[in-house]
Amino acid sequence: MEQTIQVLGNGYQFFSKFDMKSGFWQIPIEEEDRHKTAFITPEGLYEWNVLAQGLKNSPPSFERVMADILSPCRQFAL
Question: Which residues form the Reverse transcriptase domain (predicted)?
Answer without folding.
Answer: 1-78
